[in-house]
Amino acid sequence: MNSPLVVYLRAMLGVRIERARKAPSRGASAVEWVIITAIIAGVAMGLAVVIKGLVEGKQAEISQGFGNGGEGGGG
User: Fold this and answer.
1) Fewer Cβ within 10 Å of end Cβ, the chain: N or C?
2) Residue 33 maps to a domain
3) Share of the chain above pLDDT 90, in %
């Protein structure tokens, strides 16, 4: 397990961990971004559910307006 690639990756990981420990504001910033992203994703999903419901409701109205839901063209 002492291949040059593994040694290099362990060294790079150690440097990044040390940087993260010394810069707590970076971690806090990342947490803020995660929270903001989660809120935006939640709002987007909520809007998608509402829009889907509206579209399906209109689809049902249109289908009922055609009687049996659109049997063949007969042409």
Assistant:
1) C
2) yes
3) 35
